[in-house]
Amino acid sequence: MKFLTDKKITIIGAAGMIGSNMAQCALMLHLSPNICLYDPYLPGLKGVAEELLQSDFNDAEIKHTDDIKEALKDAEYIVSSGGAPRKSGMTREDLLKGNAEIAAELGKNIRLYAPAVKHVVVVFNPADITGLVTLIHSGLKPSQISTLAALDSTRLRSALAKHFKLPMNKINNCKTLGGHGEQMTIFASPIKIDGISLLNYIGTEMLPINEWNEIKEHVIQGGKEIIDLRGRSSFQSPAYLSIKMLEASIGGKQFKLPAGTYVNNNAFHNIFMAMNTRIDCNGISYKTINGTESEEQQLLYSYLHLCSMRDEVIKMGVIPEIKNWGVLNPYL
Amino acid sequence: MKFLTDKKITIIGAAGMIGSNMAQCALMLHLSPNICLYDPYLPGLKGVAEELLQSDFNDAEIKHTDDIKEALKDAEYIVSSGGAPRKSGMTREDLLKGNAEIAAELGKNIRLYAPAVKHVVVVFNPADITGLVTLIHSGLKPSQISTLAALDSTRLRSALAKHFKLPMNKINNCKTLGGHGEQMTIFASPIKIDGISLLNYIGTEMLPINEWNEIKEHVIQGGKEIIDLRGRSSFQSPAYLSIKMLEASIGGKQFKLPAGTYVNNNAFHNIFMAMNTRIDCNGISYKTINGTESEEQQLLYSYLHLCSMRDEVIKMGVIPEIKNWGVLNPYL
Q1: Is residue B134 part of a domain?
Q2: Helices A293-316 and A96-113, interaxial angle, to 10°?
Q3: CB-CB under 8 Å, B226 with A55
């Protein structure tokens, strides 16, 4: 059995639905034989560890612990779904306070116990905020932390494939940027439908404007729809995709769907949001996409919404004022 | 993206915890780009299909339907976890009546709608009975139906690895045969601990008899322990292992852990039980293991327990008397 690395991977929140699926994915994708599962809820954690030990992954060593210090010691890759889950009726933003505090704790623990970590994938919502808070408190470089944001883009692609009755691989370059929440920005202009620009179709009988608006609404409400259908938050897709992000950071197949990343450029300042990113063994980086004027405006609106959430978290005292970020993290 | 086959795989019970994980495993292992998910519970099924459509498996076509005829049409490989789940406090046998009837329906539907099926993996409990009932009603050859029984063996290996503080791959040839229930037979004699026969250790200070009995009890109660720890039946390990069984039947890596198979030889008659099996592109076959006298006796006891369950199902009218099986299935 060949593994992508022999370095330690720590999965935080492994007793949960997302975390346990992440652990299974990491083993199935042969990321490392050195897997450590962490969760503060020990019975559930033991149950997950037992299930995986009983799954015939014989060449992997699957450890588990409810001691965060032991979990993070020598970890080179970390993925955390260890936030409070979103419940029916809650927006991602409702989760803000509790999960921002959990992210601060995560960042501090990484600084203390896993200073040599190479990459961290943060999956709990609101991911743009939890990613930012983790980054500030961990002291890591911006290229070392990414957050899951791909689901909005894959939901968009899936909806367009259905609308145009085409296989998924005929729908290309679907990107939603900005906030990974209700203020996301859907970039229609780069999308190709079987090689033809989506813009050529919007507002024609192939895709009347009201149907395009329905698709956008479906994408924005995608997470809620899964809750309504399954009676629980989506867990298989976030688990699988975040492990694919981690795989890319270890040096496996590059991850080209949008991910959340730290942005501080001419247009957007001191923020964490979904961009046109790439994850590879050097971590996460992004390139700017030029959209239509209205797309750019929507992205600005999305950015401003994220700024207000960030400022709320500053007011809560979970992260310092922007001018003092450098005290905690010299890379910011 | 290369797939193992382009033939249709149908996953029955796909809205459930095991079935949805099976679907994810089948996609992650690239078994086929032609995956059909079936469940009578349409909202949950749609939710699972959406999650998988949103997981970036772009070269696969993931269909779903709550119409069993459409689901089975042209299916060449079928895996079913579509029974009623086991709840805390229930034995596998408590499930007998309801799930035997579901298995009869499955067999009849396979006969009607999927006559060209190559292999069927049955996962719902009591698997020895549901496998037998499906076989009788489907009219398939005994080599075409296998049931999940590997978890008892992998639980045994995991427990021995823990006891001897060795990595899992140093514990070899763990096999539990006979019933996949509380009357399972643990064959200790073939087991090697880092190359040395387990029999050399049992009853010594390395493995006192009471500790060996505890390990056996742990294996027998393994399923219940997961329920107690996770608050739900195990689903990741049965899903993954049954998809590994299906993979082997398609022509992927051979599956060498014990599986349930139809047995009618000099020692055991007209029964379905875990044997020393192999699954490959020719289906499932078995070789006899010679155990110690007490192991053989235990296996006989396990067989007799299965006979009494089988006879109960005959009395219920779910399957005919043994002498009339040939009317439904000429291979029996």
Answers
A1: yes
A2: 80
A3: no
pLDDT, position A180:
75
Q: Which domain holds residue B134?
A: 8-148
Question: What's the rounded Cα separation, in Å, for the pair B239 and B223?
Answer: 14
CA distance B59 to A215: 22
Q: For chain A, where are the alpha helices, taking DSSP H only? A: 17-28, 42-53, 68-72, 96-113, 127-138, 150-164, 209-220, 222-230, 236-250, 293-316, 325-328
Chain B residues in contact with A88 by the CB 8 A cut-off are none
How far apart are alpha carbons A309 and A92 in whole angstroms? 11
For the stretch A224-254, pLDDT in tens is: 889 999 998 899 999 999 999 999 999 999 9
Tokens read off for A236: 């298989």
φ, ψ (nearest 5 deg) of residue B250: -80, -20
What residues in A contact B55, CB-CB < 8 Å?
A: 154, 236-237, 240-241
Mean pLDDT, chain B, whole residue set: 94
List pLDDT tens digits, range B67-125: 999 999 999 999 999 888 767 777 766 778 889 999 999 999 999 999 999 999 999 98
Q: Are A91 and A237 in contact (CB under 8 A)?
A: no
Point out the residue among A61, A155, A236 whose CB comes nearest to the CB of B167: A61
Q: Which residues 137-166 in chain A show a CB within 8 A of chain B? A: 150-151, 154-155, 157-158, 161
Is A73 part of a structural domain of the chain?
yes
Confidence check: pLDDT of A92 > 70: no
Please check whether residue A284 lies inside any domain of the structure: no
| CATH assignment at residue A131 | 3.40.50.720
Residue A140: inside a domain: yes
What is the token pair recorded at A196?
């033809």
Per DSSP, the residues of B273-331 read EEEEEEEETTEEEEEPPP--HHHHHHHHHHHHHHHHHHHHHHHTTSS--GGGHHHH-TT
- The string of pLDDT tens digits covering residues B125-175 is 889 999 999 999 999 999 999 999 999 999 999 999 999 999 999 999 999
d(CA A239, CA A247): 12
- Asked if the Cβ–Cβ distance from A154 to B50 is below 8 Å, we say no
- The bridge status of strand A145-148 relative to strand A61-65 is unpaired
The torsion angle over the Cα atoms of residues A83, A89, A94 and A99, rounded to 10 degrees, is: 0
**Closest-approach residue (CA) in chain B for A236:** B51
**Cis peptide bond upstream of A43, omega within 30:** no
Residue B194: count of CB within 10 angstroms of its CB: 11
Rg (CA), chain A: 19
Number of domains present in the structure of chain A: 1
Interface test with B, best of A3, A27, A48, A56 (most B CBs within 10 A): A56
| More confident: A89 or A22 | A22
pLDDT digits (tens, 9 = 90+) for B229-272: 999 889 999 999 999 999 999 999 999 999 999 999 999 999 99
Strands B61-65, B271-280: pairing is unpaired
Q: State how far the Cα of B298 lies from the Cα of B189, in Å rounded to an integer.
A: 13
Quote the pLDDT of residue B58.
84
Position A224 scores a pLDDT of 87
